[in-house]
Amino acid sequence: LVGARANLEAILATTLKRRSTILDLPLATMLESRGPAPVHASLRAAIVGGRLPARSRLPSTRDLSRQLGVRRNVIVSAYEQLLVDGLVETRVGDGTYVASRLPPPVARTATPTVQVNTPSRRVFALGQTYVDPVLLRRLATVTRRRVALAMPADVGYGDPRGSEPLRSAVALYLRASRGVLCDPDCVLIVSGTQQGVRLCADALLEPGDRVWVEDPGYRVTQRTLLAVRMRLIPVPVDAAGLDVVVGRKVGRSAKAAYVTPTHQFPTGVTMTMERRVALLDWAREAKAWILEDDYDSEFRYDGPPLTALAGIDGSDRVIYIGTFTKMLFAGLRLAYVVVPRAVLDRVVAARAAHDRFPPCFMERAVADLMADGTLAAHIRRMRTRYRNARDMAAQALLQAAGGTLQLRVPTQGLHMVAYLPPGLPKGAAAQIRANADVQAWLLSETRIQHSRVDGFILGFAGHDVHELTAAASRLGNAARSFLAKRA
Ligand SMILES: Cc1ncc(COP(=O)(O)O)c(C=O)c1O
């Protein structure tokens, strides 16, 4: 290598003296492997990076091969490839030159670090479910079978709505458990609630349209709406759900409302029938769409699931979105959208334009789990497990907080909200959270407009119960001592 470097220095010295021929190659790379590909790659990098400027003369193939100690045809092949790339030109009888017209060299900047926000998995994180070995084994079996028995139709391009068995199973399930009477034709399988919302916005709304969103609400989907250039109209939520009267005042002409009527996120409020009717009335009058996000209705702890808004909509203004994220797990990336028939072709076209169609094997496997009763049994088992986790966490929190936190123990879902007394200084909730060393979302982090009330959104599913109760105690203690210092 020392000798080779000296060779390169010699080449550079000569070429710089002659000025017309310049060469500055990463010699070590070339010498490690003597084929034409690395020589070509090194020369290409030197040209594209601007180290070999336009119109400069490359050494003759004979010179370079001799000096680098590689066979001449290696250099000839590399030069030929550069010629095909358009990076060099040959002049008859006068050798090979770097092309006279090249794009400006690619600026060498420090590689920026990519910031990827993967949601936390720590205690109280939302979106966690129990990793049930029984379920996983069964899922593995049906997936293996589906792959092993794949027909040509399963491995080619498919229906933009997703595979028929899962759409049928979802339609059956929604009819039986959510009161949503839908045809499998109108069900689209998507890769998550956000994709469902995005497809509806792409198909049915225009950039700049105003959309009602609950405040507090699910910021994740709100960000999706912003990404497709919707204008968010925050509408407050009270004990009866989204306040439709306020919505009409601040956004009468909105084109859609994104709501979680069965179990409002994050407050847990169920929208009253009066409000549901008022919302449907507004949608009919305004010709607006209601995007109903029904994300955790399977987990109702004291009675059967409530009827969805889509189940009482007689005017086809509701687009229903459900997900397997809570029923099974988030990593599946499987959700479903029920679209009114009148606009089905538009949403299907949006889906096809987006990514053609969803992958089919996991869909078929999940359809099998629905058909053979595995999913229903899993939900029953998880209901017991999650109810237990909810009770343990609530008890630990209330005990430690000594009355400083007000807890709404939910009858549904996988999270609960612990409220701080109103009127605490800004940053109090964040301070308590830091003192407790927990990573719960704050209520204020789900708001668009400021409120005097803050609190903690506590996911209780899918966490180790000991860790959960320990974290609940830490949070309760932190709240109590923070408030004691203020007293
Ligand atoms: C309000 C709400 N909607 C939807 C979801 C599920 O979203 P996805 O289907 O994208 O996993 C969640 C998950 O935590 C949620 O809280």
Topology (elements, then pairings):
Elements: H1 2-18, H2 27-32, H3 36-48, H4 61-68, H5 72-85, E1 88-91, E2 95-98, H6 133-148, H7 152-155, H8 164-178, E3 187-190, H9 193-204, E4 210-215, H10 219-227, E5 231-238, E6 241-242, H11 244-251, E7 256-259, H12 273-286, E8 289-294, E9 318-323, E10 335-338, H13 341-355, H14 361-371, H15 374-401, E11 406-408, E12 415-419, H16 428-436, E13 441-442, E14 455-459, H17 465-486
Helix pairs in contact: 3-5, 4-5, 6-14, 8-14, 9-10, 9-13, 15-17, 16-17
The structure holds pyridoxal-5'-phosphate (PLP).
Fold and architecture overview:
The structure is a single chain. The protein contains 17 helices and 14 strands. The chain is of the alpha/beta class and 487 residues long. About 1% of the residues have low confidence. The protein is globular, with a radius of gyration of 31 Å. Bound molecules: pyridoxal-5'-phosphate. The site of pyridoxal-5'-phosphate has 14 residues, from α9.
Short description:
The protein has 17 helices and 14 strands.
Q: What labels would you give this structure?
A:
487 residues, alpha/beta, four-stranded antiparallel β-sheet, 14 strands, 45% helix, globular, binds pyridoxal-5'-phosphate
Q: Enumerate the strands of the largest sheet in spatial order, edge to edge or round the barrel.
A: 3-10-9-8-7-4-5-6
Instruction: Summarize the main sheet.
Output: 8 strands, mixed
**Number of E-state strands:** 14
Unreliable stretches (pLDDT < 50, length at least 5) are 26-32
- Distinct ligand kinds: pyridoxal-5'-phosphate
- The global form is globular
Report the β-strand fraction as a percent range: 5-15%
Helix content: 40-55%
Give the helix tally. 17
Termini distance? 75 Å
Oligomerization category of the chains in this entry: single chain
Task: Determine the structural class based on helices, strands and strand pairing.
Answer: alpha/beta
Radius of gyration: 31 Å
